[in-house]
User: Fold these one by one.
Assistant:
Number 1:
Amino acid sequence: MTKSTPLPEGAVLGILGGGQLGKMTAIAAAELGYRVHVFAPMGDAPACDFAHATTRADYDDHAALKSFGEAIDAVTSEFENVPCDVMDILAAHVPVSPGRPALETAQHRIAEKTLAKDIGMLTPHFAPISSAEDLIAAMADMPNGAILKTCRLGYDGKGQVRLTQSDDLTAAFNSLNSDDCILEEMINFSAEASFLVARDAQGETRSFPASINHHEDGILARSIAPADPQILSDDLLSDGQAKIATLAEKLGLVGVLAMETFITSQGLVFNEIAPRPHNSFHWTIEGTMTSQFSQLVRAVMGLPLGNTQAMGVWQMDNILGQHMAELEAALSAEGVFVHRYGKSAAKHGRKMAHLNRRLD
């Protein structure tokens, strides 16, 4: 695929995963004239409601993957925990996004932090943990406390526990039920910032304005963007955008890449990456010339990358299962853009919708 030969209108974008990120990607694809084929395991999959075709199968069903690959013109993933060999199987048929290296790295916390260190980013002091003895030894070097996390599959505060040196470390290790963990020192930070870059198959990149984020119980609650320069200085903004572009290049990524960081007195400290659309950039649907979802479609389908200029200052609020009354009130509020995800049941801590509003 080259810049001169983007996939034509009516071509089929395959999406791995049926959640809300897949749904919003499917909507963006339709706006650009593309059809969508969703591949997702059985279960709640709101993205399927916006697809012209669906395949409901597990990611280890190689026959289903082969048929899926033969029915689409390009493919992307709405989440980073798709098995890496899925990218290999589909790459035999179509251009793939984000690609195996990006998935492999984002799926393992030690791999992503090692890559961040390799390109010159600050990271928390960290140590691989495979036993309670490892944890006890590593905690001796972290007097200010640390977080023990599973290296794989943890998200939204799941698969992790905060520790001090006085805690029962053996019990903490056993609670995660994994021998593939990472211990990360606690960071003294003033704010959390996330960055997003798009990269196409030719290596062209386009950065979005950064977001300032607030988490509650390990789950993103609110993002405000573009980042206030009094919180994220111009120098740190430029550094973060340069670093995430370097990460995308190192990974050979096609699509979009998000990076979460801590703002500290020493500079930006790397937290994690996600090679997919990111919750902290949902404000771009109304807030930028090209949303993160439209940009993903453009990158994957070979269209020129769009303008990422912000149209004002925006606030995004997550609506979890326990916030449904707030969601109902927002439906009649002035100046609030409501995005419901169409999930079948509201559960505590489950992302059900988000609200966007312009602040200036």
Number 2:
Amino acid sequence: MQNLFPMRINKYLALKKISTRRGADELVSAKKVFINGKLAVLGSKVNETDKVEVKGIDNKEYKYFAYNKPIGIETDSPEAGLFPLGRLDKASHGLLILTNDGRITDQLLNPKYFHEKEYVVRTLNKLRSNFKQKMEAGVDIEGYMTKKCKVRILSPFTFKVILTEGKKHQIRRMCANLFQEVADLKRERIMNIKLGNLKSGDMREIKGEELTTFLNQVLHQS
């Protein structure tokens, strides 16, 4: 990792799983980050031999929430100090996981790891007879072949799809390539976390066995 240095302080804290880069900037702005005993500023560089301290974060209590994002708002956290893992575009709705735990960001978003995400999609036009077969096999979206996925047809205009990757606007682009236009897109599940009957705009804390299972899957993967 030596050739990565010197590196910006926000990248360093993200690499150490202390926070996201954005969260690191907030910690620096709040005057909680020190390099070799001196207060860090935005853009400070860190060398490999430097001693970096983050005040007030050692006893941080990690929180995790399931949030039902409404249609029409950008992916963002409704609560200060929490950030969303992954995105849902403005026109989509459903499950987002919000947390202050920077350790799990890379594992959840890194394309080399596989995490199931389940969506219910309604189309404007009737699904073609070969739609399931073509969607499951993988679709060429602007030169990228999507990974195989699972599709279940629910009605002539509705299907469920389980993806293990998350390219930008992936489902909409896959559908467009197969001559289907998306009317509604809702994410219902990320790994073992389910949206359930959570109302639009509401949040619930993820805890107990549900949280243990989730963290085991995310943190203990090779």
Number 3:
Amino acid sequence: MKIIISIVALALPVMAESLRSANVTAAINEVQVYTGSSQARSAAVGETLTIPSSLQTGRKSRAELTFSDKTLTRLGQNSVFSFREGGRNVELKQGSVLLQVPKNAGGATIRTATVNASITGTTVMFEYSPGSWIKLITLEGTQKLTIIGSNQTKDLPAGKMIIMHPNAKVIPDPVDVDVRKLVATSPLAGKGIFTPLPPYAIALIDQTIKGQTEAKHKGDLIPTDHVITGPGHRTTRSTTFVPRTDQ
């Protein structure tokens, strides 16, 4: 299975012109670049890709793109993505992605065939297995999940996760996920493969962790033995919490 990332040229407003290119800031194992109709070549860390361009990585391979506004996109193995508007809109056809959008960057949307996730100044993780499941996790900030073609929407604040079937007609209520354990074990969050996330993102994620820690001490969140693992090498491994129900 390979990762394919396409950066597609669109008619963009002037304010978004700077997002028409991205630097390759990580290329792990088999990562190839396609530019227009040219033959594939190996990606080079530090090179600048302009639209239209594609990245392709193989099994146990990952890549990272950093756009001029500091929007960070990390791509897991065994995934298929297409990028439009310089990375603002991401079509996730299969696999996993971590997207970190700075507060002033204008937001982004992760799209699949059946749902959209809109984020603004947020760090999120998204997994999609066609015909099986969708998993969204908000590390900091808030994202909104929408079922395409319906009025079904749900906000997903920091520390929350939604797992659902891709063809579900109703969005389930979010559950609490152990962000401390998730960040400590996730390659996309920086565990052993990528460098740590930007300091401002880490500070905001630390606020999420602090809030969960305080809630545990108060007894408002109770750790469970339920471990959620992602595809491949524990892409989004974490445990869940059970909120106290006697309130």
